[in-house]
Amino acid sequence: MLLKSTFQIKNRFKCTIRVWRTIHNLSVPDGKTYINGKWVAAKSGKTFPVLNPANGEIVANVPDCGDEETNEAVDGCYDAFKTWKNTTAKERAGFLRNMFELQMKNSKSLAHIITLEGGKTLAESVGEITYGASFFEWFSEEARRIYGDIVPSPFKNRQLFFFREPIGVAGIITPWNFPNAMITRKVAAALAAGCTCVIKPAEDTPLSALAIAQLAEEANIPPGVINVITTSRNNTPSVGKRLCEHTKVATISFTGSTAVGKLLFEQSASTVKRVSLELGGNAPFIVFNSADVSKAVTGAMASKFRNSGQTCVCTNRILVQEKIHDDFVAALAKAMQNQLKVGEGLKPDVTTGPLINENAVRKVERHVQDALQKGANLILGGKIHSCGKTFFEPTLLTNLKKDMLISKEETFGPVAAVMKFSSEEEAIEIANSTRSGLSGYFYSEDISQIWRVAKALEVGMIGVNEGIFSCAEAAFGGVKESGLGREGSRYGIDEYVQIKYMCLGGLD
Ligand code: SIN
């Protein structure tokens, strides 16, 4: 192991830190981040604590970096790009394959880190590590398929070529809800294309990013190719701005809220930067009369309660056609009561961990209160869970209306809110009546209806009779205000390459 633990253990936090150290055979040092191939502290010496959302204990302390460290990382990353872009595709494929294998080899430790810093259940964290590793695997294979074109020329003495070349340094700004996979989805594509990266992980979950940096070091990825800038909530806006406005950063890839995405987009305009954005959703989940109700309930459980309702593609509004409405609600209530167990993510039988922090709980509470005040019916849950102030009861509401906050904004919590509709046209109108367009789901056994509705929904991704569609092969991304560009799939590489046209003349 390259690095030894140097945690500043305070007695008060000894228990958590001991857990962190024993499970964490990756040994990322406390108070250090990874810039230009070195583990370094912030210039100011300042750190900020990473809290376990389940109990508020400090898991580790990480450097509170600012503009100075960001500039240093970008400079080193820019230099590293000059060499990395000239590696062969086969070499880059080999590095990425190593990353895949190292991530799978360390999956237990990496999953444990996710649960400690992000709160999700261990089973889901293990799933995230496999999902995250699949991007290294997929892009190790795609790296060798970044082809250009030879185009028929209109002139006899000229030949036209299009090259797809790496765009440069990528600024990668990632969220807390998938602290591993949202990094690997971007970094694997960037590295495959020949780009180098500066990662700015979410303030709540920087440890998974540091663990990825350590894997990169073990995989012998050259210094400067992957850098991590850890920042507190206070420093985050200025580091984000620095990355967007830096002339040596060629592209920004961000996953997170629509509000922050719009700000980064604006900030990137000054340098006319490539920007790819995967932003918030407000996913409709439509159950038509023709649906198999039991399959629809299984899908709703998966798409609503994954990560305690904290994914961008989580169902937000459940629309059920009137004939089957009552049967669906009864079956969903039963499934929620029988299948969901709230508690700390490290406990084996828990399905629903804490939300990321108390602010997140307050938002969920506000949405539920607003719905109840405007006439929703409370079937299950509705308040903070007895497990603690970051836990929320799995909640089922009916009589959702268009003017309620849940209809308008992403709730990001374990609240299933059901609205009754009568016709297919009405369901499509309701589903599309939002500026978000990330994902949508519907259940129908009528093939003509499946075709019509799939075409009519204004979203980037659709699950038809399926509640979970994420995989490395999926073209992940939204339309309208839910984003720009695609991640994963064969399109993921496009975010990190630019086309160079060459006209070779004088061929008489
Ligand atoms: C997200 O919540 O942003 C990503 C979810 C996924 O990749 O399935």
Automatic annotation (TrEMBL):
It is found in: Mitochondrion. One of its GO terms (biological process) is gamma-aminobutyric acid catabolic process. Residues 39-501 form the Aldehyde dehydrogenase domain. Pathway: Amino-acid degradation; 4-aminobutanoate degradation. The active site is at E278. Gene3D superfamilies: Aldehyde Dehydrogenase, Chain A, domain 1, Aldehyde Dehydrogenase, Chain A, domain 2. It catalyses: succinate semialdehyde + NAD(+) + H2O = succinate + NADH + 2 H(+). Homotetramer. Catalyzes one step in the degradation of the inhibitory neurotransmitter gamma-aminobutyric acid (GABA). This is Succinate-semialdehyde dehydrogenase. The lineage of its organism: Eukaryota, Metazoa, Ecdysozoa, Arthropoda, Chelicerata.
